[in-house]
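Let's do one together. I've listed all components of the complex below, 623 residues spread over two lines.
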Amino acid sequence: MAKRIEAVGVTAYYGAFKAIDGISMVIEPKSVTALIGPSGCGKSTFLRSINRMHEVLPGARVEGKLTIDSQDIYARDVDVTAVRRTIGMVFQRPNPFPTMSIYDNVVAGLRLGGVRRKSVLDDACEKALRAANLWNEVHTRLNRPGAGLSGGQQQRLCIARAIAVEPQVVLMDEPCSALDPISTLAIEDLISELKNQYTIIIVTHNMQQAARVSDRTAFFSIDKTGDPGRLIEYAETAKIFTNPSVKKTEDYITGRFG
Amino acid sequence: MSMTTLTNSPQAPLTTSLQTRRLPLWSLISIGVGAAVVAYLVFKIGGLLDAGWVLTIVGAVLIFLIVLAVVSTVVEGGRSARNRVATSLIYSAFILALLPLVSVVVTLVNKGKTRLDGTFFNNSMRNITAFDSGGGAYHAIVGTLEQVGIATVITVPLGILAAVYIVEYGRGRLANSIRFFVDVMTGIPSIVAGLFILAFWVLIVSPHFSPTDKPFYSGFAAALALCVLMLPTVTRSTEEMLRLVPGALREGSYALGIPKWRTIARIVLPTALPGIVTGIMLAIARAAGETAPVLLVAGGTPDRNFNPFQGNQESLSVYIYEQASLASKYGPPRAWTAALTLVALVLALTVVAKLLSRRTKLNQK
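Okay, and this is what the predicted structure of the assembly comes out as:
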């Protein structure tokens, strides 16, 4: 299921503005990798370039090489929808489709991707909701609007929606920043379970969260506003948080800047 | 001794009371009644400014506002007084804005009900002279339905697709210029749309469809003219609604590997649907009320003509125009009933459309 992602010299632009510069890192399968760093340092940009969501914005483009199990994601003959089906994404704010029920939300990716069979959809829905620890809470009201759930439930619904299409990598862009501590805990537990099956990359502003859930941590930073973000240090989470080898990382971890 | 000096020492109170004096309801009512009485005595009985009812009511409102401001300032203080005056002004403005609307509906129903009978809905004006009391608007109702129906069928897909292009696909100069011209077209006078279709369709194109090679009027030409008027309204309102759909929904859909066109068709458009329907209904209502272009290119006729592609056709608004200016005492009542019918038709359409667009919004499934 899970796949290995390799970035070599990934540079991303918004129009003329260079947002990240020469990011190179290897992300191991079936692990949780956390991206941390101050605001504007390009963590989300890097995350979005992994499943080609960066280019959705007008004028945005990516240079460099990104491969998933040595297949080039940005090759000319690559179907962008296939990339996104392989590499799912969960956003900062829960964004369930407002016109759809809980059920329709979960199976949206399958149904709009061409799956018609009711039994297949039903199975996928239950499986995804169970995996997202949401089944027990919503299985009696699958026909109700997805937007009627609480914020934490909505975010788990979005995670269920992302894993219903059976991706191999799940990208999470600050999935807990709009949630209360209890919902955050639920999502963090979920992340630890999901990593048995998926490769997970999570952007977070919460360093405790990075320390709790991730196996490896990448620290991004910028020199000053307007400069592109760079990868400063990438190592085992334990090493980053206890014995970082770069002074800047240590300063950030201990709260001396950022 | 020292205790007393401490307690008696001049100190600002630590807490100010949260309660203030309020004017009781009866005082407001009596100010209102008083203002009405004074205005009645001064303007109506006293004959100041030769006033009729309208000026009396305006005077009563003004007196009420002034007295209220003074009393409230004295009793409750300046902030409350401003609040009360502003509230009263807002209510007055609301009632003022509602008056013409209510007046129109009441007048329509009152004058329209005299000819609200079976004859009206089952007959055309064929062989009805100025001395005949019968006659109806059957042919006009059918004409309006056909013309507006054809115009809607042509306009809605075009308008929605144009808006989708502008919002979702259009980049750069082309999209901007299209948006600009849509804006310009929104302000086109309807007679110009009629003249355009007269010159283009009736005079140039229609002879090619005629066995005698002569230009001819038709309901379809009227529908085309209505299209010109409806298209910018539909496009513009759809565009606004699509812009309101959060980008996060599109991104959420893309991230599931759903292609762009499917995202638009299944996520974006359904989310914007209620607003789009409202825009379409506004366009239909406007088109149904257009007289000049229909008169210009469909000609109008007292006879039934259910074929929109051949020959003169009537519409309700043209019918109203004709009957209202008819030199017969039977004309104006027909015009009123036709007007009532037209308003009822638009109202019914709007209600149905609103219900339909709400039905698709979940819950029942």
